[in-house]
Design a protein that fits this description.
Number of helices: 8
Oligomer: single chain
Order of helices and strands: HHHHHHHH
Structural class: mainly alpha
Number of strands: 0
Radius of gyration: 19 Å
Shape: globular
């Protein structure tokens, strides 16, 4: 990850005030964990784990890219948590309980709305997963700027790029998303 600005560099998190890094980033890490886990308790647990991991490996994390490192680590920890939980629970039980809870006393319209919402959420998750595979820097720029609502100047500084380069990354990422997913988005919007 040397070229990505996460590790290495002259100033590590070790050389800056850990409490300051925590205060400036705890809400962004929590929002990321909550967004991906959709569970407040899991988000709180992941947030604690992320900062523990940062504390343990702080000499290897570039202070200028700490926000991107924290957000990426939170996202990955949630994905690992979900994977682990899915394998621990028998799938048939999950599907039966989900179906019983959702469809028990629902009208057909309620059921269709729930299914559409689940499909849309899956679509958004697919976009972010594909974006991450396509270009991690684009993913970080989009996630930190739009999901975590950080000011673009701050995002550029944390990613170690100029504001113009960040604007270019955001533009190219949005253009790639539009080209690749416009038809599917239009289909979901029409239903």
């Amino acid at each position: 990850m040397e070229g990505k600005g996460i590790t290495g560099g002259a100033d590590s998190v070790r050389s800056v005030d850990f409490d300051k890094v925590y205060e400036e980033n705890v809400s962004a890490v929590y929002r990321t964990a909550l967004y991906y886990s959709e569970n407040e308790h899991v988000a709180e647990e992941i947030t604690q784990e992320v900062f523990l991991k940062l504390y343990v490996s702080k000499e290897h994390v570039n202070a200028d890219a700490v926000t991107a490192w924290l957000v990426s680590t939170a996202r990955n920890m949630v994905k690992n948590h979900k994977r682990k939980r899915w394998h621990e629970i028998p799938r048939e039980d999950v599907l039966d309980n989900w179906a019983d809870g959702i469809f028990a006393d629902s009208t057909e319209e309620d059921i269709l709305t729930v299914l559409h919402d689940r499909e849309y959420c899956g679509f958004v998750e697919k976009i972010f997963n594909d974006l991450y595979q396509m270009n991690e820097r684009w993913y970080d720029a989009i996630t930190i700027t739009y999901l975590l609502e950080k000011p673009q100047k701050e995002v550029a500084e944390n990613m170690g790029v100029s504001l113009e380069v960040l604007h270019s990354m955001l533009y190219r990422a949005k253009r790639w998303i539009r080209r690749k997913y416009k038809e599917e988005y239009d289909r979901l919007s029409d239903t």
